[in-house]
Automatic annotation (TrEMBL):
It comes from Pontoporia blainvillei. SUPFAM superfamilies: RCC1/BLIP-II. RCC repeats lie at residues 110-168, 169-219. Gene3D superfamilies: Regulator of chromosome condensation 1/beta-lactamase-inhibitor protein II. It comes from the Eukaryota. This is Alsin-like. InterPro entries: Alsin (IPR051984), RCC1/BLIP-II (IPR009091), Reg_chr_condens (IPR000408).
Length: 382
């Protein structure tokens, strides 16, 4: 028994689904009443203009009601009951929209139909004040070859303009006014144009007021929205500075990181220092310690230098970097005077070698040949 009552209740509820109730300003009753003359068809979507409205039924049919001055028959200008838009029969409309004095519909195949007042080109028909019946609107993308018809998902209508949201999530506009969002000053626009300001963005929904428009746009992925740092990553100073000078403000973004410069210089010094390896060695077992520098130049080997009698109170380290052409150049780690060229260096080395051999011969010592190290020596301060 309870199941029978439940099924009867659901049947009654299904009959109530999609019923249309209206109430008007200035009427004596503020209670919504059933739309006069309307049959029992279920309504899925309704849209209202200033003095008219459009109904979309569940079987894809469209009905207009209210004041319809664009209709060709006098009896249809102020009908007592909603009028079926016969041009759309068999098209299966999926959504409808109304502006202040015009209407639009979109079929399941993405084709747009417009009708109503057209004084501002809002129905996409040139040189015609009224469009009495639904008229198909041709929307094609000129950027494709051959031209491809644009399929539409949604319509939005203002008083003098219309917006269409395509299947590729782009906005197409026609009519009159800056609310179109088009780069033009020539109105009316009767051929739908793409809104280039939102090209490349994903538009989710469009809406129109009487003389303004709105687009709901999908947010960009978080990884594409990289925040701009306020301070330098190295010296932590502000990247943009603002200076208040009397009656004007100076904003500057010319940040020069001193720490970044220091790091660069130190890196270059480290790279140059890879050819210099300071070390200490003991010569001839006499306990005399000399500061040596290993140089990459390969000069003719003679004998091991013995400069035990040379004063080494102040020793400078000399390096000989190789230039691009292979000619040794001489530079000082402590900015001492540079030698003229490699020949002068070789002569000086030879003098030191001869001096060492002569001293050994005078002292009766037999010169002992030794292995020549990779040009490791030190100079007394000149």
């Amino acid at each position: 028994m309870d199941s029978k009552k439940k099924s009867s209740t659901e049947a009654e509820g299904s009959k109530e689904r999609g019923l249309v109730h209206v109430w008007q300003a200035g009427s004596h009753s503020v209670t919504p009443e059933r739309l006069p003359g309307w049959g029992g068809k279920t309504v899925l979507h309704a849209a209202l203009g200033v003095k008219h409205g459009v109904l979309l039924t569940e079987d894809g049919e469209v009905y207009s009601f209210g004041t319809l001055p664009w209709r060709s028959e006098p009896a249809e200008i102020c009908p007592s009951s909603p009028i079926l838009e016969e041009v759309l029969v068999g098209q299966y409309v999926v959504t409808v929209a109304t502006g202040s004095f015009h209407s639009g519909a979109v079929t399941e195949s993405g084709v747009v139909y417009m009708w109503g007042e057209n004084s501002a080109g809002q129905c996409a028909v040139p040189n015609q004040q009224y469009v009495p019946e639904p008229n198909p609107v041709s929307i094609s993308d000129s950027e494709t070859s051959p031209l491809l018809a644009v399929r539409v998902l949604q319509l939005a209508c203002g008083e003098e303009h219309t917006l269409a949201l395509s299947l590729s999530r782009e906005i197409w506009a026609w009519g009159t006014g800056c609310q179109l969002g088009l780069i033009t000053t020539t109105f009316p626009v009767t051929k739908p144009q793409k809104v280039e300001h939102l090209a490349g963005r994903v538009v989710l929904q469009v809406a129109c007021g009487a003389f303004h428009s709105l687009a709901l746009v999908q947010c960009l992925p978080s990884q594409d929205l990289k925040p701009v740092p306020e301070r330098c990553n190295q010296c932590s100073q502000l990247l943009i500075t603002m200076t208040d000078k009397e009656d004007h403000v100076i904003i500057s973004d010319s940040h020069c990181c001193p720490l970044g410069v220091t790091l660069s210089e130190s890196q270059s010094e480290n790279q140059a220092g890879t050819a210099i390896s300071p070390s200490t060695e003991t010569l001839d077992g006499k306990g005399e310690v000399f500061e040596n520098t290993v140089v990459q130049n390969e000069l003719p080997a003679a004998t091991e230098l013995n400069v035990g009698n040379v004063q080494t109170t102040s020793v400078e380290t000399i390096s000989f970097p190789q230039d691009v052409m292979g000619t040794p150049e001489i530079s000082s780690a402590r900015s001492i005077p540079l030698y003229p060229d490699a020949q002068a260096v070789n002569e000086y080395v030879q003098k030191l070698s001869d001096h060492s051999v002569r001293e050994n011969s005078e002292n009766g010592e037999k010169p002992v040949p030794s292995q020549w190290k990779p040009f490791a020596f030190a100079f007394p301060k000149l």
